[in-house]
């Protein structure tokens, strides 16, 4: 899944870092979303200015592209952990819950934009402003909200980069083992990738990567079609040797993997904010629901059919199960490797952007070594992901770990917390309180148990 850089909307020029109260006072004490001296409600959608706004169709394509990556290739191992029946039900449930929570996030951001009379709010600012007007016992956390969201975004994006390194190295190793020198440790392939990844991450202008990104998207879609061809070739075996319900220990790994695969929290606000008709994003038949219906359906199909095909032999990426004696199968592995390698720089752009623009730029803005320092940051981030990948070259463990740790928080926990805070002054009824509390507890449990079991499996892999 591909995450867009954090949106840099007009809020930085319009002082949204004021608290809600300060913003209201700056506008004459009006915090009801009404223009001064007017009974007309403020509509953020009408005040967004974009040079190249996206159409509904383009937004739908971006959502699909952002969710069809390494995550979908790991769905068969997720079904192996949960079992076939539980995997089917669980994927639909988690997909529906993620969809609902992201609708909540977009809706709450809209309400806060109306109150502050600003066109757009980033995810960190949405949480901060929500906490400022939430229950008194939560308001102490408002100043830390931005850093908390940034932490999870950075960790998640670096986690994706770790997954990418393991994925590319593992698939290239499979091809080289067949046609050239067999049985080299996968870590040697990671080492061979290190310098190219560092140089790729030195590209500071994303426009230069745009043509390569288009090629990567094409390779991904074609490769996914060929994977499905191999899955259905010669038919699927029966259910005799397939688990219908997995072990208790496997369920948190399933949840983490599915969250990693399904969640598109990093692109949701950015895509909705950049739409020509943002009102078309939500709703029962809106762009987001259309995209999520396709995505969840594909994940269920790939997960269930991949597990039926390969059973307990399924690996962290279904590409690793493709036959080694088939040339087309090796071409598929190379295609995905090239696509994921290209996409690494786009994923690493997000933590670079957050760290540099939020924590380092002001300090080194006037330094004569500004460029060298930025390149140093880019190099360090690549080295971190490389060392983590070398330490634990297990694709499925990285996916479940970062899915459980980061996306339980970003995709489920924080949206529920934001809604509770936004509705607090309106005296939310018992249903809303209970609903948000249940989502909050579920996401917290998934985070704690999923992360602990993933870490336990990682420690076990060293033994």
Polypeptide structure, described:
This protein has helices at 20-26, 56-67, 70-73, 75-82, 84-116, 123-132, 142-179, 186-201, 210-232, 250-262, 265-273, 287-310, 327-364, 370-391, 395-422, 430-461. With 463 residues, it is mainly α. It has a single domain (10-16, 53-461), classed as Up-down Bundle (Amino acid/polyamine transporter I), CATH 1.20.1740.10. Helix 6 (123-132) packs across helix 15 (395-422) and helix 10 (250-262) packs across helix 16. The longest helix is centred in the middle third of the chain and has 38 residues, at 142-179.
What is this structure's SSE topology?
Blueprint: H1 20-26, H2 56-67, H3 70-73, H4 75-82, H5 84-116, H6 123-132, H7 142-179, H8 186-201, H9 210-232, H10 250-262, H11 265-273, H12 287-310, H13 327-364, H14 370-391, H15 395-422, H16 430-461
Helix pairs in contact: 2-11, 2-12, 4-5, 4-10, 4-12, 5-6, 5-10, 5-12, 5-15, 6-7, 6-15, 7-8, 7-13, 7-14, 7-15, 8-14, 9-13, 10-15, 10-16, 13-14, 15-16
Index terms:
68% helix, Amino acid/polyamine transporter I, single chain, mainly alpha
Q: Could you say what the CATH architecture is?
A: Up-down Bundle
Estimate nothing, just give the exact number of structural domains: 1
State the total count of DSSP E strands.
0
Following the backbone from N to C, one meets helices and strands in this order, namely HHHHHHHHHHHHHHHH
Largest sheet composition:
none
| Unreliable residue runs | 1-37
How far is the first residue's CA from the last residue's CA?
31 Å
The first-level CATH class is given as: Mainly Alpha
Determine the strand fraction and express it as a percent band. Answer: under 5%
CATH H-level superfamily title: Amino acid/polyamine transporter I
How does the helix and strand content classify structurally?
mainly alpha
CATH topology: Amino acid/polyamine transporter I
Tell me the number of helical segments per DSSP (H or I, 4 or more residues long): 16
Apparent shape: globular
Percentage of residues assigned to helices: 55-70%
């Amino acid at each position: 899944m591909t995450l867009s850089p954090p949106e840099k909307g007009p809020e930085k020029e319009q002082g949204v870092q004021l608290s809600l109260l300060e913003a209201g006072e700056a506008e004459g004490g009006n915090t009801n979303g009404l223009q001064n001296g007017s009974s007309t409600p403020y509509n953020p959608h009408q005040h967004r200015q974009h040079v190249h706004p996206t159409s509904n169709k383009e937004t739908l394509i971006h959502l699909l592209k952002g969710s069809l990556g390494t995550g979908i290739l790991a769905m068969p191992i997720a079904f192996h952990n949960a079992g076939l029946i539980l995997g089917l039900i669980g994927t639909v449930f988690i997909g529906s819950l993620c969809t609902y929570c992201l609708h909540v996030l977009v809706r709450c951001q809209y309400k806060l934009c109306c109150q502050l009379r600003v066109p757009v709010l980033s995810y960190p600012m949405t949480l901060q402003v929500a906490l400022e007007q939430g229950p008194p016992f939560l308001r102490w956390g408002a100043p830390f909200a931005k850093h908390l969201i940034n932490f999870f975004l950075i960790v998640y994006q670096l986690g994706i980069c770790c997954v990418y390194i393991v994925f590319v190295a593992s698939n290239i190793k499979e091809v080289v083992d067949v046609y050239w020198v067999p049985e080299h440790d996968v870590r040697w392939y990671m080492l061979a990738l290190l310098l190219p990844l560092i140089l790729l991450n030195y590209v500071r202008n994303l426009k230069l990567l745009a043509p390569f990104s288009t090629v990567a998207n094409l390779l991904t879609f074609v490769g996914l079609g060929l994977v499905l061809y191999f899955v259905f070739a010669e038919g699927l075996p029966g259910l005799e040797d397939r688990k219908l319900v997995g072990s208790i220990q496997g369920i948190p790994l399933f949840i983490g993997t599915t969250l990693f695969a399904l969640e598109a929290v990093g692109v949701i606000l950015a895509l909705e904010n950049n739409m020509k008709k943002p009102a078309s994003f939500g709703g029962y038949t809106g762009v987001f629901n259309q995209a999520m219906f396709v995505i969840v359906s594909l994940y269920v199909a790939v997960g269930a059919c991949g597990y039926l095909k390969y059973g307990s032999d399924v690996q962290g990426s279904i590409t690793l199960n493709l036959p080694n004696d088939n040339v087309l199968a090796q071409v598929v592995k190379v295609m995905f490797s090239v696509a994921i390698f290209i996409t690494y720089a786009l994923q690493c752009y997000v933590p670079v952007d957050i760290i540099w623009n939020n924590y380092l730029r002001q300090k080194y803005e006037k330094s004569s070594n500004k460029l060298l320092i930025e390149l140093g940051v880019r190099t360090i981030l690549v080295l971190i992901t490389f060392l983590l990948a070398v330490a634990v070259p297990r694709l499925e463990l990285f996916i479940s770990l970062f899915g459980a740790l980061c996306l339980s928080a970003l995709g489920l926990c924080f949206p529920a917390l934001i809604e509770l805070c936004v509705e607090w002054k309106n005296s939310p009824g018992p249903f809303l309180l209970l609903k948000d509390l249940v989502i909050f507890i579920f996401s917290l449990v998934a985070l704690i148990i999923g992360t602990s079991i993933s870490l336990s499996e990682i420690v076990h892999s060293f033994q």
